Amino acid sequence: MNTTNLNSEFDKIRPYHNDEIPEAMQRIADAHEIGNIASFLFSEMNQTEFRDMIRNIETTEEFQKLLAAKAFHKIVKQTTRGVTIKGFENIDTLKNHIFVMNHRDIVLDSTLFQIALMEHGFKTTEICIGDNLMPSQFFTDIWRSNKMVKVIRGASIRETLQNSLIFSRYLRNTIVNKHESIWIAQRNGRTKDGLDITDPALIKMFAMSGTNDVLTSIAELNIIPVAISYQIEPCDWMKTRELFLSKDAPYQKSPNEDFQSILTGIMQKKGEVHIAIGTPINSELESCKNIPNQAIFKEIAKLIDNQIIQNYKLFDTNYIAYDLLNRTDKYTAHYTEETKEQFIINMNEKIAQIGLKFYPELCNLFCKIYANPVFSRDSRNQDI
Description:
By secondary structure, the chain is an alpha/beta fold. It contains 16 helices and 7 strands.
């Protein structure tokens, strides 16, 4: 395989190599945006000390340990009641995997997973993010220094197809030849309504760079589904607002809305957080044999969905929202009257923050975000 040609093909989307890190660190240290990050996450250091620390970073590993991990440990301590994780025994350390995760928060989903991997002695993965999150050189340097791979979006149909093929080749090359694992969300953009559904187009993209045998091509990637669950949904009120405004017309993001969502997701209280690593889907691919090609991608997506839905941890907030939405007491054993009242108070405060005069409908949408994982679990269990 001609690695020179591969490197050239992937240069626009790949993470930085270690020999590119020092120059990127100089740009980050000199950027004015870094001052706000230092004040919020590294308040124990003065600005000069913080910038000097960044300038001395020479590798991706140093960047993740000295900057990314420390920053997110502080975020976890200040905004959560703790992060639990299970399923490390499902990771085969002799193989590389694509970890497909449900997507609830722009930054936290992948980052909390990386921290968990680091703390349990596993290598961090490369992380796939949309190019809309690289609006400037500063953010490009931050993300690409943190093993992030750029997903190019918003092009014409022809360009989208070409970008998808290059991206697919990159993923396969990373797994097979670079011997690195990858994290990717199960769909473009976060779920806004609490329904975790894998886009079959993602599976089709995975297979594009393989052989004509779809199952063999998918098996080579060693896909493992991962479920992340938040007791308090990141950006819940912002998602409620978007759901309401997108009922009758396509939703148009305001300038810097993605960045505002990142900040809100990071700073908002999240309660308990749980990550569950599933089992490789290779052992289940046999069930997809003899299925027409046009249907096989949907069936593989369902295999991922089954694990994510079953491994999703349902919190008291999910059960409260379900009972409020359905005016029932079906799940009262999972919460107290006190936690129910607190949920209603928090919901009312957040809906007031939206600033729209459609209270009943906004309450309904807000509750669905939390209740839909319960609906999904109930529906899935009935189908088994």
